TrEMBL record:
<feature type="compositionally biased region" description="Polar residues">
    <location>
        <begin position="10"/>
        <end position="21"/>
    </location>
</feature>
<dbReference type="InterPro" id="IPR013785">
    <property type="entry name" value="Aldolase_TIM"/>
</dbReference>
<dbReference type="InterPro" id="IPR008811">
    <property type="entry name" value="Glycosyl_hydrolases_36"/>
</dbReference>
<comment type="similarity">
    <text>Belongs to the glycosyl hydrolases 36 family.</text>
</comment>
<keyword id="KW-0119">Carbohydrate metabolism</keyword>
<dbReference type="InterPro" id="IPR017853">
    <property type="entry name" value="GH"/>
</dbReference>
<dbReference type="GO" id="GO:0004557">
    <property type="term" value="F:alpha-galactosidase activity"/>
</dbReference>
<dbReference type="GO" id="GO:0047274">
    <property type="term" value="F:galactinol-sucrose galactosyltransferase activity"/>
</dbReference>
<feature type="region of interest" description="Disordered">
    <location>
        <begin position="1"/>
        <end position="21"/>
    </location>
</feature>
<dbReference type="Pfam" id="PF05691">
    <property type="entry name" value="Raffinose_syn"/>
</dbReference>
<protein>
    <recommendedName>
        <fullName>Alpha-galactosidase</fullName>
    </recommendedName>
</protein>
């Protein structure tokens, strides 16, 4: 085996001359070892192939350093032929791949200029060729082998890179005659009842025990009953209670193994069927979770605190998509909660002006309360309307990691001044733990022993009282709209003092005992359920009168830590009802529920949709000083969202700091979460550039976040954290078909990761039918936030080849946000010219498309007399395209375009006019660039088309023209392109 001789480029000498480099010798085995292999479908992961596919495709990209010579590489897929086609005795076969010219678009890769890239493709026919015939699904393994030329030995990816086999789950065509029994292989003592599913294409079941759950009137205990197992289980996912207040994901292969109780289980079977199982909770005082026995059976665990006979209850659903099966059980669970007597009692006690209204989190949402007017809230309950947009969408600051528990008014003002000095107009603030009047001493006494003594703030933090301090803050920072304070559901970590202050004499107290196993364990005192409504009404009346407009109510898991059955039955729904009524009546529903991921609250309070959506902390805390916690924090939030997406909440992925090595990672995660964004920087330490990439200024001068209208969640339900895969978080903003799909990609491994995927993995991007007319096919361009690259128009169709794939390389702590923007047109401009456009939103923002409210397109005639133009030549054109864009935030608006049939470049002034609110934008505020744009492919009809990005500095023009916010707080931009 002869070595390959390579002469590298000459090197410069110190005197500016050139000296030849040494001749280097590379053996073929070394070249194969140094190559990088990226595949789709990916190796080491499971890919589900839907039954609609007539064939399934493989794409492999080989990357080799440019310091090595180019080679005639060969690549083959080695796959389990016998399993795929039922060919007994034929075992594995090779599928040679063909080198192609159309490569996947590289969206983000800092190594790109130092690499040769070679793309290979091939396909296998479906094993389900006959329509109407019944088939079983298949699980097919595959790997990759490659070599630098036909004369060398094959190299196996597994040997060189320790990469596991890829797995394809081939879903069979649906069997219309299948009636379906229980999706679980049930043990004795269970009854199955088939239900009508509200989620199309899902089969829904109720599983109920034939025997009752024992109960104890004094102190109930957990009872166990084996449910059964899932046949053909290939992988599973569970959402478990890592401890009482928090949920987290767990994953595994065939055998179910759980060390913590779970509330949701999902199984991917080897035939492609998803089985989702949900514990029934929230309808009475029975707490239900799942565990596993040594044989991998599902075990139902229930604690019966009702004092009555109750049965073990479980919901299950099957579908060919996880999201459909998941929705089926969640919709049914919501129905059960709303029908329960406990919920009916809570609903009847809601304020009459709130009840029966299902309100969302969009900017037109209003809620009514008695705050922010000149009346005395203690004596006037009549409501006034309040907008919720600022609460949901403003950038917020929290004092917790920033100032710690030793906080005071001076420190708060210093922190806010830092943001104002940098033109970051914080609109919402949370005054976190330790503003309250408490027993004991900060830094001396354990926080779990300290108890609340009064409504008024501690003099240490607010020497002149809470109202005086809040008034001073609002006077100094007029952009501050909402100020929230933190408190525990039962007052403080140590609940309510029974010896100090006025609370123990003003309200009836109840001695309670919290279960062993947490630092809070032991005896405490809390407000008696007979007085809890009065307590919360009085407390929030005081807060509202002091200028507080929101609350963060923490430590709600104490309701599940109560050891006594009587206490659990008396306090659980009563406390939830009292808190909900109080924040709706006094604070317009501006509340954050924290440490509350206990089933009793998640189901009872948050599944129904008849109140405004509040914020719900979605995972355990952000720990800035624990490096390994950061990727896990994002991973856990993305998986918790699979459950939380069906609740009447906005998921809060917790505050974070903008000035450490994972700050960008966290920022991108918050931007795609669909929830609020809180920062908790030390004063003077903020990364202002990073903050600007998450936020924008609205016409009223407030700093707002650009929040997608849908909740962000993982797109890879069964990929474990330990697999080292790229975490993909998908979300969508806007109306169907015309909105923007977004995907956050995060490297949660401790090494560089290469990957590629089809654009159809981005939410909202769908395949075009093979027989659809060419003029009606939908296409998208995809933009990377980090690299600022934009793909050419991609028209998703089968087969999936390089033209439909995007590729990236993420380093350690690497992340990116990709936006798939629909392309409109082609618009006929006459003279055989056609124009395609995509309105990208605000450039330089991670989720800049979320600044868009809407856009309209209209082909018009030439500019007439009296119309505004930048150049008189615009009056002679045959046709123009008018684009109307409505926006809710200021910044640099990007509009991608591709014009065919014209030899002339589009220029500002001669071919383009831009107006805002009917006034011409100064020409210097508009530029056109081609940087980062993908040129049309060679040897295609669009090869000579001109591509560009129009960049309109809307924020600068807004200031130049002296414009002011209108009644709808929107910005209108008009463009005329000829």
């Amino acid at each position: 085996m002869a070595p390959v001789t390579l002469k590298s480029a000459a090197h410069s000498t110190s005197d500016g001359g050139q000296r030849p480099s040494q001749i280097k010798f590379w053996r073929p085995g070394q070249m194969a070892l140094f190559a990088k292999i990226t595949t789709f479908p990916p190796l080491g992961r499971v890919t589900i192939v839907p039954p609609s596919r007539k064939q399934f495709e493989f794409t492999v990209v080989v990357e080799s350093s440019t310091s090595l010579p180019e080679q005639p590489w060969e690549v083959a897929i080695w796959y389990d032929h016998a399993t795929c086609y039922g060919a007994v005795g034929e075992d594995w076969r090779a599928l040679p791949l063909k080198k192609v010219d159309i490569n996947p678009t590289v969206l983000y890769d800092n190594r790109e200029n130092s690499l040769h890239r070679y793309t290979f493709e091939g396909n296998l026919p479906t094993p389900f060729p006959t329509a109407g015939k019944t088939y079983k699904g298949r699980q097919v393994s595959f790997t990759v082998r490659y070599r630098i030329n036909p004369n060398e030995a094959w190299t196996w990816v597994k040997d060189n890179f320790a990469t596991g086999d890829g797995e394809l789950i081939l879903q069979p065509p649906p069997d219309p005659n299948y009636l379906g029994g229980s999706p679980v292989e049930l043990h004795k003592g269970w009854h199955t009842r088939k239900l009508a599913s509200e989620a199309p294409e899902a089969r829904l079941y109720s599983l109920e025990s034939s025997t009752t759950i024992p109960y104890d009137e004094d102190d109930a205990v957990e009872e166990h009953k084996v449910l059964g197992n899932i046949n053909m289980c290939h992988r599973w996912f569970a959402l478990v209670r890592i401890w009482s207040p928090w949920l987290a994901p767990r994953h595994g292969l065939q055998k179910l193994q759980l060390n913590e109780p779970a509330i949701l289980l999902s199984f991917l079977r080897s035939d492609g069927l998803h089985v989702v199982i949900l514990a029934v909770n929230g309808i009475d005082d029975v707490l239900t979770t799942f565990k596993a026995d040594d044989d991998g059976n599902i075990v139902v665990v229930a604690r019966n605190d009702t004092g009555k006979d109750r049965k073990f209850k479980v919901l299950a659903a099957t579908a060919h998509e996880f999201e459909i099966a998941n929705a089926a059980v969640m919709y049914e669970m919501r129905k059960l909660v709303r029908q329960s007597s406990a919920y009916q009692d809570t609903a009847q006690s809601l304020p009459t002006h709130i009840r029966h209204q299902s309100l969302d989190s969009e900017s037109d949402t209003v809620i009514v309360s008695n705050m922010h007017d000149n009346r005395d809230p203690a004596h006037d309950d009549s409501p006034t309307p309040q907008w919720l947009a600022s609460w949901y969408d403003s950038l917020a600051y929290c004092t917790w990691n920033s100032l710690g528990q030793d906080l005071n008014l001076e420190k708060i003002i210093t922190a806010l001044q830092h943001f104002q000095d940098n033109k970051i107009n914080i609109a919402n603030m949370i005054i976190d733990d330790n503003w309250q009047s408490l027993t004991g001493t900060q830094g001396v006494d354990n926080q779990f022993t300290r108890a609340m003594t009064a409504f008024e703030a501690t003099p240490h933090a607010f020497p002149n009282g809470l109202k005086s301090g809040i008034d001073e803050i609002r006077q100094k920072f007029p952009h501050l709209h909402d100020i929230a304070v933190w408190h525990a559901l039962m007052g403080y970590w140590g609940c309510i003092s029974n010896t100090e202050g006025h609370l123990h004499s003003d309200y009836k107290l109840l001695p309670i005992t919290l279960k062993e196993g947490t630092p809070a364990a032991g005896p405490k005192h809390t407000i008696h359920p007979d007085d809890i409504h009065k307590f919360y009404n009085d407390f929030y009346t005081f807060l509202s009168a002091s200028g507080i407009t929101a609350v963060k109510t923490d430590v709600q898991f104490y309701l599940d830590e109560l050891s006594s059955t009587k206490d659990r039955r008396a306090l659980t729904t009563t406390y939830q009802s009292a808190w909900t009524q109080a924040h709706l009546r006094h604070l317009s529903g501006k509340a954050i529920s924290c440490m509350s991921q206990i089933p009793q609250i998640l189901y009872h309070s948050f599944l129904p949709t008849n109140t405004p959506r509040i914020m719900l902390r979605n995972s355990d805390d952000f720990f800035p000083d624990v490096p390994t916690s950061h990727p896990w924090h994002v991973f856990a939030n993305a998986h918790s969202a699979l459950f939380v997406q069906h609740l009447n909440v906005l998921p809060d992925w917790d505050m974070f700091q903008t000035s450490h090595e994972y700050s960008g990672f966290h920022a991108a995660a918050r931007c795609v979460s669909g929830g609020p964004i809180y920062i908790t920087d030390y004063p003077g330490s903020s990364d202002i550039k990073l903050i600007h990439s998450m936020t924008a200024r609205n016409p009223r001068g407030e700093t707002v976040i650009l929040r997608p209208s849908n909740v962000g969640k993982t797109l890879d339900v069964y990929d474990s954290y330990e697999s080292g895969s790229v975490l993909r978080v998908g979300t969508y903003d806007g109306r169907a078909d015309v909105g923007t799909g977004m995907m956050g990609v995060f490297n949660v491994a401790e090494r560089d990761v290469n990957f590629m995927l089809p654009v159809t993995r981005i939410p909202g991007v769908t395949l075009n039918a093979a027989d659809s007319p060419v003029t009606e096919r939908k296409c998208w361009v995809v933009r990377s936030h980090m690299s600022r690259r934009v793909t050419g128009p991609i028209t998703p169709m089968l087969p999936v080849g390089g033209g439909m794939l995007v590729q990236a390389n993420l380093g350690v702590r690497g992340f990116d946000v990709w936006s798939a923007v629909p392309v409109h047109g082609a618009f006929d401009l006459g003279r055989e010219r056609s124009l395609r456009v995509a309105v990208m939103g605000l450039l330089g923002k991670m989720t800049g498309a979320c600044a868009l409210v809407g856009s309209r397109f209209e082909v018009m005639g030439p500019a007439g007399e009296g119309e505004e133009v930048w150049s008189e030549s615009q009056r002679g054109v045959e046709r123009r395209l008018r684009i109307d864009v409505q926006m809710k935030a200021l910044g640099v608006l990007g509009v991608w375009f591709q014009i065919a049939g014209s030899e002339k470049e589009v220029t500002v002034g001669e071919d383009l006019l831009v107006l805002m609110h009917g006034r011409v934008i100064p020409q210097e505020r508009v530029t056109i660039t081609t940087a980062g744009l993908t040129r049309p492919p060679r040897h295609t009809p669009e090869e000579s088309a001109k591509v560009g990005m129009i960049q309109i500095d809307v924020e600068g023009a807004w200031d130049d023209l002296g414009l002011e916010a209108g009644w709808n707080n929107e910005i209108g931009v008009e463009m005329y392109i000829s």
